[in-house]
Amino acid sequence: MKKIVICTFLIAAGAASLLNINNKIDLATPDFGFKNVYAIALGYDKSMGEKTIKAAVIDSYFRDVAANGKIIRWNKSTFPLKVYIEDSADVPSYYREVVMSAYQAWERASEGLVRFDFVETPQEADMKCYFKSVNDNNDPAIGFHAFSVNGNTITDSTITFRKVDNKNHNLDSKQLFSSALQEIGHSIGLTGKSVSIYDVMYPIGTKFNTEITPRDLKTLGLVYSVVPDITNVPVSAEEKSQLFTVQEILATLNVPVDDNTANLDEVTANDIATKLALAEEYRKRAEYDKAAQEYQAVAQMKTDNRSKSEVYYEVAVMYLDAEEFDKAKSCAEIACATDMNDLTETLSPLIDYYTKRSSSAIEQLETILDQNPYNKHAYKLLCKIYRDKHQENLLNATIKKYGRTAGDIED
Q1: Are strands 127-132 and 153-162 parallel, antiparallel or unpaired?
Q2: Are 398 and 370 in contact (CB under 8 A)?
Q3: Superfamily the domain 32-252 falls into
Q4: Residues 172-186: tens digit of each pLDDT
Q5: pTM greater than 0.70
Q6: Nearest Cα residue to 147 out of 73, 221, 62, 87
Q7: So where are the chain's domains?
Q8: Within 13 Å and on the Cβ side, how many CA atoms surround 270?
Q9: Which H or E run includes 217?
């Protein structure tokens, strides 16, 4: 039996330069209710026009999933999948509830495209979740996912969560919930990763993502619109007739860029899809200045300042991950000048946080939240700083004060 292992790691991403041109849980375990306000009609088939498919691919990270290897997902006819979550006496009681909430969040957000039933024993389960001790304290991952595969058949799926973090503290509920969302995403077929810091499938690093985004949902819908290479029950001929191949999906973009493109400089990029693909590929190859030009072009092709600022914001954060702080600051200034909003307002304290000036970051974030208690970006960053500093009293006070306004709202 062969194992395909998909893990969540803390990844420091490189970025491009834009200098010349972004069940009841107590107080410490907040409610993770998810409202699908995006109204994404999940699922794509051959009755839909090429423009519809192309728009979905552009606003997703399906290309990364496809580039990660074979498409591995469950046969839609076998949902709801049976899920076993270990009820361990060795971990806090809320661990199991949080993981269960993450499964329910995916079910609600996907409007039932993926569905789950919880069972009491691992023997009857398709998906199994365990809490175990992990000896490697240098590995920042909280959760680890693995498919068990026999030939081209999924036999089961296992997610293992740490009992404690690498500093031997119990996992914070939002930290665990974020990891569970991502590992469940892997387990339902999102085997790639997003380059957008907003998405659940973005490698955990800058923040804990606890909201499933339209990009996550569109990617999931596309994964379930193609013929899988590996699945649990063979896809019938009738089912295949309604499904795309990966090549058919990607052909809608006409983007001549992938990992096998030898010379990216020869690629002509005249549209957003190609420029984004080119920028991402330059970034993978650590050619950040060239990626900068493509990202800047994408921002200039956006039609409103909010969308433009999001490009600069994201690149600023990527620069922070790459520890190029001067460039990150320049990108942040562009993002704020383009559109000052709840997101860009947090860039200054975020830079302070990355550059070890936590006191300054906390002071700015508290001011932002006093003025606007609905700013979820400031709230999440402040909570993260308190978690990192293990200041549980201040963390709980922040959750109590702003959790109902900034903690549970949707985009």
Answers
A1: parallel
A2: no
A3: Collagenase (Catalytic Domain) (3.40.390.10)
A4: 888 899 899 999 999
A5: no
A6: 73
A7: 32-252
A8: 2
A9: helix 214-223
